[in-house]
Design goal:
This protein is an all-alpha fold. It has 15 helices and no strands. The protein has one domain: Orthogonal Bundle (Ammonium transporter fold), CATH 1.10.3430.
Amino acid sequence: MLAIAALAAPPSAAAAEPGQVDSGDTAWLLVATALVMVMLPGLALFYGGLVRRKNVLSTIMHSFFGLALVSVVWVLVGFSLAFGPDVGGLGLVGGLDFVGFANVGPVPSAIYGTTIPFVLFAGFQLMFAAITPALITGAYAERKRFGAFVLFTVLWSVIVYSPLAHWVWSADGWLFKLGALDFAGGTVVHISSGVSALVVALLIGRRAVNGDRMEPHDVPMTVLGAGLLWFGWFGFNAGSALAANGLAANALVVTNTAAGAATVTWVLLSYALRRKVSVIGAACGAVAGLVAVTPASGYVTAGGALAIGLVAGALCYSATLLRERIKIDDALDVFAVHGVGGTLGAVATGVFATTAVNAYPGLVEGNAAQVVTQLIAVGATVGYAVASTFVIVKVVDFILGIRVPSHEEEVGLDLSVHGEVAYQP
């Protein structure tokens, strides 16, 4: 999957020679790709249940149409910018060698996933590219123009996601060469989407209340979405080994461990403060744990994942309380869960990485330099994503206007934008 996994992961016992397709590895990556795809409808349901009923279809449409949109962008240019040979030797962006999936076929790459078809590697990467801008949509739910969403998604995917993927996962990327560890997307997926969501929320402004109760309209829908995300995350992380081997098995187990630990922590803290056992809190806690363990899943043991999950539940829950106090309308807590959780996971990877799992020692094994490298990767990701997203939002607002008119927002985007309603009266 990711270049860093492909280059570092130990081969399976029966792995094919480089350049030859291994049927077991290929079968697993086909399944893992489908699992990650399931995360998009899972995210749609997770977000859809959290908004008001008059905006549920518009919220679901962001994830569903976003998958279709990025699928086209990725084939046309996104994959090439992410994994094409480096332009200029600076490790910043790939060239145009793979535009339109040219030179992307059934023969394995000599660099990325050497026992699976290169086109499968590209397809697996597509699902990561699709879900990342979909995560941002939670920050501007219930108030963004659909055309603005489309243009923003295209620009953000090309300008932010693909270059970051090149930095971290391309064999030519500058952060990859620096030694930054990100097994399945802590920096590229979660930090980038989390901080970008915060920028969008600040620029688009708070939702109009109009006397509505701003509570989730369908909690079972949100819990179902969280369950699908948890399920799909096994493909997200375990698939990142790019092989059916022990590294994939370890990634699956630590993924589940961190999700469980964060769920327990979030629910306990919520009960301690509010004396209620929150079902939404359980769903959000699970996602927080999944986010935090993502970059570490190929480098830590179950014990490290347990520590990451316990801290993630507490830290991300605290971030939601802070968001409430500072009055930033990140509608579905994208920054609190993905920005904060991704940052924690990226740094914790440098702490808990162990040679018992992969070839990279962390702080617990005496390698403090790895933490420094992780902090550099976090800082670079935050800086680039924030600056680029700010410019993209301003450009989209200038061209199309980013926010729906007030009367459309009052009626609800389902009816005013899509001409449909989720529930008949």
